[in-house]
Design a protein that fits this description.
The chain is built from three helices and five strands; from the N terminus they run E-H-E-E-H-H-E-E. With 112 residues, the protein is an alpha+beta fold. Strand 2 and strand 3 form a beta hairpin. Helix 1 crosses helix 3. Pfam families: ABM.
Length: 112
């Protein structure tokens, strides 16, 4: 398994819009590119951090090189509109191969 970790700062008041678009975009990326999905976190600074799982680096790289474009302009527009800042070049902050996985998979993915 392979993971990529990203971050975004979101305009104040657009957090729900961002989370909704992120969830829909994640579903579409999973369907089109073969990801295993992802988790969204929020750090103490308010920055959103996404952890995306992929079957392998080649599958992720093929999707990343295509900018993970999916056929839902409304979702993409809502996602982009909510974002105030991303890392330079929108590159992931980490890409890693999983060596040991002890995470329990929850049935409820939306969290608080």
């Amino acid at each position: 398994m392979f993971v990529a970790i990203y971050w975004w700062r979101v305009h104040p008041g657009k957090e729900d819009q961002f989370r909704s678009a992120w969830r829909r975009g994640t579903d579409l990326i999973r369907e089109k590119y073969g990801s295993y999905g992802s988790r969204l976190h929020r750090d103490a600074d308010g920055r959103f951090v996404g952890y995306a799982e992929w079957p392998d680096e080649a599958t992720w790289r093929a999707a990343f090189d295509r900018k993970m474009v999916y056929d839902d302009p409304e979702t993409r527009a809502a996602f982009v509109d909510a974002i105030a800042e991303v890392p330079p070049d929108a590159d992931p902050i980490f890409t890693m191969t999983v060596t040991d996985d002890l995470l329990l998979r929850s049935r409820h993915q939306d969290g608080p």
